[in-house]
Amino acid sequence: MDRQTNILLVDDDDLDVMNVKRAFEKAKVPAPLYVASSGYEALEMLRSGAVPRRRLILLDLNMPRMNGIEFLERLRADPELRGIPVVVLTTSADDRDRAAAYRHCVAGYMIKPTSFALSVEFAADLARYWSHVELP
Prior knowledge:
With 136 residues, the chain is α/β, with parallel strands linked by helices. It contains 5 helices and 5 strands; from the N terminus they run βαβαβαβαβα. The radius of gyration is 14 Å and the shape is globular. 29% of the residues are buried.
């Protein structure tokens, strides 16, 4: 990435987190990857500055305690955080989930890749795209 984007992965599934990390490494994505295992932890990390500016959130929807849509509601209600772009990365192909996510102004909605090769391709594509986007 020409300009470093700090990526916050919000996902409670350790295996999915490991797969994303491995895919980013294999694709040689130079962006720092921060991980929050819940929406609560993600909000705390963002508010405390633990994830530096020029941030992008990769968000799973199916999480306990605070699901991804609830996280989006809180993120978009916070004047300091509402402008952070969010890409949903989930197993849910449910039209209701997709519509709810887009109502909260997500930058994209993607189904988690079904193979490691597709995960690497996703990581590389994501890095290329976000390295050119002007972020607040």
